[in-house]
Write a structure and sequence with these properties.
The protein is of the alpha/beta class. It has one domain: 3-Layer(aba) Sandwich (Aminopeptidase), CATH 3.40.630.10. Helices cover 39% and strands 16% of the residues. It has 11 helices and 7 strands. The protein has a 7-stranded mixed β-sheet with strand order 1-2-4-3-5-7-6, with helices on both faces. Helix 9 packs across helix 11. The two termini are 23 Å apart. Bound molecules: zinc ion (ZN). Zinc ion (ZN) binds next to loops. Zinc ion binds next to loops.
Length: 285
């Protein structure tokens, strides 16, 4: 629930239409019954109404709870607004290129988001145990991008004993349900990068990002399909099942960070512009 919910425009209502029922269903009989209370928590709302003052210091970060090994899962609200972006800095522990750039990226993104009425929430690293060990899965060996209750989820095989079996996916899933994102973005990296993959109605967002990123690095491209099955992934769960736009941003593995930084700043600015364009196109109706 966004603080400005009572002032929500016709445009954002339209953009968000169809989400309410899925989000309610999401928490019916699930492992996180306190999600509604968290969404209604005035303290949580107040945090979103107050812009982060010191972006590169600890006070802005809040803990969602511990990982398997007790490391904090941290989030920060960088800006507030009617269109909500939930950004995950890292999910696979051996793909931390994007996450390691966050200290430099956050001030840039915050400026763009605040000027544009976008609520931007960052989850710094939803797999801190994996990052510490440079390992894809969490400390229990579960791939946190295969542990979501998508229709294509199947237990076992590194996907967990059941969907949301892991404290990391439970905590982030609960927080995302409270935040009700209009767009989800997750950083990864691969030797095939850099590219943007998308699920759900996110093609225009992916194209805007890539067109801008290409001006800094011509290798950027849109890859509509990863080319292999991703059961229980965030893309399957949010994009395919719930029609919530999600971008999977695949940076080039072990790449020069200056190059990635420029592309990520340009990509985000273009994304913000595209969001404004879509909001304008649906306003006044
Ligand atoms: Zn990955």
């Amino acid at each position: 629930m966004r603080p400005a919910a009572t002032e929500k425009t016709c445009a954002s209502e339209r953009l968000r239409r169809g989400r309410i029922l899925p989000w309610l269903l999401l928490w019916t009989g699930c492992a996180a019954p306190d999600a509604k209370e968290e969404a209604m928590d005035p303290g949580r709302s107040a945090a979103r109404e107050n812009p982060v003052r010191e972006l590169d210091t600890a006070p802005g970060w809040r803990s969602l709870g511990p990982s398997v090994q007790g490391r904090e899962l941290r989030i920060m609200d960088l800006s507030r607004g009617e269109f909500g972006i939930y950004w995950i800095g890292s999910i696979h522990g051996n793909e931390t290129e994007g996450h390691s750039l966050l200290p430099e990226l956050l001030p840039e993104w915050t400026r763009s988001a605040r000027e544009s009425g976008i609520a931007l929430r960052i989850c710094e690293d939803m797999n801190p145990d994996g990052s510490a060990a440079r390992r894809r899965g969490n400390a229990s060996g579960v791939d946190l991008n295969r542990n979501w209750p998508a229709k294509n989820y199947r237990p076992g095989g590194g996907r967990g004993s059941e969907a949301w079996s892991e404290p990391e996916t439970q905590a982030v899933g609960r927080d995302m349900a409270a935040f009700e994102p209009d767009l989800v973005i997750v950083f990864h990296s691969t030797w095939r990068g850099p590219f943007v993959n998308f699920d759900g109605p996110a093609q225009a967002f992916a194209k805007a990002w890539v067109d801008a990123a290409k001006t800094t690095d011509p290798r950027w491209k849109v890859v509509p399909s990863m080319g292999y099955p991703t059961p229980g992934s965030m893309g399957s769960y949010f994009g395919v099942d719930r029609n919530i736009p999600i971008l999977t941003v695949e940076l080039r593995r072990d790449e020069n960070s200056d190059k990635a930084f420029k592309a990520l700043v340009a990509g985000f600015a273009a994304l913000v512009h595209e969001i404004q364009k879509q909001l304008l196109a649906t306003s006044g109706s």
